[in-house]
Amino acid sequence: MLRDKFREFSRDTSSIGQERVDGVNGLADALIAAGHSENATVAEWKDGLNEAWADLLELIDTRSQMLAASYELHRFYHDARETLAQVQHKQKQLPDEVGRDLNTAEAMQRMHTAYEHDIQALSAQVRQVQEDAARLEKAYAGEKAADIRRHEQAVSEAWAELRGSSQGRRQLLLDTVDKFRFLRAVRDLLLWMDGVRLQIEGQERPR
Q1: What positions belong to coiled-coil segments (predicted)?
Q2: CATH code of the domain in which 85 resides
Q3: Mean pLDDT throughout 65-93?
């Protein structure tokens, strides 16, 4: 990766360069201390050398920061796209079927509880995208900031839609299970009343 290669180059260059600059500075100091006839020229060259070295270090630092910022932005775009794809995939996994009877409806309810647990794991990824977008928007302006906002909004809107769909399905399954439980209670009661009627009708009529 370019950023890692430059980091290695920066570390090696700074280390080797500082060693060489220190060596030349030591040589200049020795010449000046010995009262060299060209003391003023030596001091001037030493200052020029140190100034050039400081400029080079600043250039390396600026380049490192630019690469780090570029890497962070590209990582945000990658994370946002990946999170959006996962959220949309989970949205497609939501079934429409609610069950034909109490047993299947209760089974669907258990499956949905597991599904909700799965999508809850995505909330941390969504939150990370939102936090990264908020931080990066401050560092960029114009079209780039707008593009960051678009990526974040796409993720946030898809996440809100998924949560809404999931909550709606949970309520629908609750209503379905309650309906089947009610119908079973009604059926059991009707069967019991039929039994009581048969008992009454089966008894001898008084003479």
Answers
A1: 112-146
A2: 1.20.58.60
A3: 89
* Confidence at residue 41, expressed as pLDDT on a 0 to 100 scale: 85
Distance CA 60, CA 66 (A): 10
- Residue-wise pLDDT tens digits, 41-62: 888 888 888 888 888 888 877 7
Q: How many domains does the chain have?
A: 1
Decide if 40 is inside a domain: yes
Write out the residue range of the structural domain in which residue 190 sits. Answer: 1-202
Higher pLDDT, 188 or 11: 188
